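Exercise: predict the fold of this chain.
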Amino acid sequence: MKPTLCIINYNGERCLPATLGAAVDLSDQFAEIVLVDNGSTDASLAVVESQFPQVRVVARVDNGGPGAARNAGIQAAGTDRVLFIDNDVSLTPGCAAQLG
């Protein structure tokens, strides 16, 4: 079974185009792509909604830190396996297959 890719974001407006572009290019390696927004105050959500409509967004009202965001990602995931990355990480081809 393919894992869920969960991207943790806080004010990543500048990073998200590269990160989500790489993730979408590899979307066949994942069951779904979920972005957990940790109460961003920049235009992060607008970037996702306008450029990456295939990414499901879980919008948290406040920034509870990375642990709270990861817990929200686990709860939102449609699979038992979840690969977490931060908003400034660009995946490379074959990375999900390396996880076994």
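Check your answer against the key: The helical segments are 16-25, 44-51, 65-76.
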